[in-house]
Predict the structure of Peptidyl-tRNA hydrolase.
Amino acid sequence: MKWFVGLGNPGRDYEDTRHNIGWMALDEVAKRWGVSTAQSKCKGLVAEARVEGEKAYLIKPMTYMNLSGECVRAFLDFYKPDPADLIVVYDDMDTELGSIRLRMKGSPGGHNGIKSIIAHLGTDQFHRIRLGISRPAPGSNISNYVLSTFRKEEREALERTVTKAADAMEYCLKEPFEKAMAKFNGS
């Protein structure tokens, strides 16, 4: 069983922001699989799917970004999935918009959602799909940037990012994460 956690913030004010690109990727996969992430469980919205014989969960924490680990912990405590099957999908300023980067582990790199998950799991040993949102101009306020919406001229690159992330999630159902890294990193 794979469990994909897309990071974002609940509410209309955050719906189309850079910080919610993880939710956008989960929505794309949910659409492909014909499921809805509308069921409220474990401090999040959860969808269960069976894809090519593999059970998969799509989880959107409803705790706000900085408390994402509460939802991940609640899901882990209730469903008892293998933490090795966790894949977190989230925004990354160090990756260009239009690109994704897969990582097996690591520090939060300043991302408060990842910091919360590490604190609640007690480890940084979980897989990640980092979705590029690019860096703001030097001197810009980081919080304002990640909570801003994508500009019209960024929409095409946004769609590429979301599509690549959804493709990577589907690939991870069939192949080991290392193989997914080799396929999607650098593409």
Remarks:
- DSSP finds six helices and seven strands in the chain.
